[in-house]
Amino acid sequence: MIHRRRFNPIRLAIQVVLVALGLVMVFPLFWLISTSLRPAPELLESPPQLLPQHWTLDNYASAFAAAPFGTWLLNSLIFATISTLFILLTSLVGGYILAKFKFPGNNFLFILILATAIVPFEIYMLPVFLEVQALSLINTLPGLILPYVILSYGIFFMRQNVIASVPDELLDAARIDGLSETGIMIRLVTRLLAPAISALAIFAYLQSWTAFIWPLLVLNDPNLFPVQLGLASFNSSVSVNYAVLSAGAVVAMAPTVVAFLVLRRRIIEGVTLTGFR
Amino acid sequence: MMASGTIGRGLHRVRSALPSVPPQRRRTYLFAYGFLAPIVALFAFLRIFPIIYTVILGFFNWSLVSPDHTFVGLDNFINLLSDPNFQTAFLNTTIIALGTTVISIALAFFVAAVVAYGGGKIGGLIEILFFLPVVTPLVPATLGWRSILDYQHGVLNAIFGIFGIPNQAWTTDPTLAIVSVIMISVWAQVGYNMIILLVGMRSIPRLYYEAAAVDGASTWRQFRHITFPLMVPILLFVTVITTIQAYNVFTQVFVLASDVQGAPGYLVPVLVYDIFQNGFRYFNFGYAAAEAVYLFLVVIVLMLLQFRLFNRPTD
To answer: DSSP string spanning A178-226?
Structure first.
């Protein structure tokens, strides 16, 4: 809409409301950090104070002493890294082939992949559990990772990107130059798709870092828990107070929140590019 | 990588199907099938088969702990309809899904419109503040919310107290617990919706607005007759995505109901939680699968609705 460029009190008021709403949005994160930095007696203050009166890092020490947060973070790191690498590989190869090779069943496969992309995992998690059980992978890291090695939407997304940014002429030229099909895919196509690959990588990492219900179903050994499940189990153990719990919560959310603050432009562009959630 | 037997069979099939294809072509096909095969296998194993098998399981009395698997026809589906747990869960989930969708989209639309058309310098800041919850894992986020919603020491009741409103039992009162779940879900979703709507608004050519302004259309009329109609498809997309997501609400409910010092919050029964209970607490996989099929039907209806409305001739 076209606005006349003069002082507009309504517009200023709306902007103030917006910033206030924005602060409400980050308040739960601020509150966790603030709670994690205060000594236990200050938890009972009424009304609650925004900032600690006596700042302390003891709650973090207590959290790491009371529960294997280090192991949990490491498990999440392994889970997210392996899942992301697999999703990149399967999406890139699958998307490229579906986009550039005409073979019987291509279209059918594409529609099938697109249709399953929107079906939430919660709907078919029971048979996946039975499969993982049949493979004797319950309560193992491979069992945790297995359902996260492909992403229907990732294959769809890569196919669209190959169509948009990999011209046929370039592929043919590379073939005439004697490059093998595998060589073309690895050297040429990945290079042309760099922005799409990074958007997909960010999404895949976020997806497994925040995953909750599948780890809850498949794991019961606390030493294998990713950090979200570990935090939830820490929450239901009786001997922790809110300050220590908040310290654990900050540990569990810090990696994605910090990554977002560093890569914010990239991530927001990635979302607008992919529509991922 | 794949077993050589599969390559051999694939090669044979390609050769017999395409006898006249030049060698270069043939190698290309071999490459395509060879690399696609393992991906299709994973896709079938991890997506297609489980989706189909969910429906099949629904027709069985399938216990996780005993080998007894009897075909029971539609029994599970019929019994669910008169199961009070399922009824409550379905109703609660629907209320949460509708509440989350309507509020998060209305709020996202407002914020996106201000950022797109009147945000000035604060637009970038607003995007970041609203998007932070989207990248925050739900377990720590819900713990933060639970502390804010705490009856005695929570910030929300303290703020209410300033206005003389008595303390509310946000996590233990059945109705308020649903309100709390909606609050957390909206908080987690609104930033995503805003970003998607913002993309749509920014893609509307300025020329339209300039032409309307020349014709003397007010800001409101520009909004009503340009922005809104052009945003309908994107609004529809966001609505369907948000509703499907919200129907799968689980983590918030799970975390909100468990408390540190022995005083658990009220458990809001929702569909995925009930599926989880039936499957993994009572080991009744058939019953749980039938419940998942009902959830699947909701998703299918929403998808069809979107396709239907999308393909509607524009008026």
So the answer is: T--HHHIIIIIIHHHTHHHHHHHHHHHHHHHHH--HHHHHH---GGG--
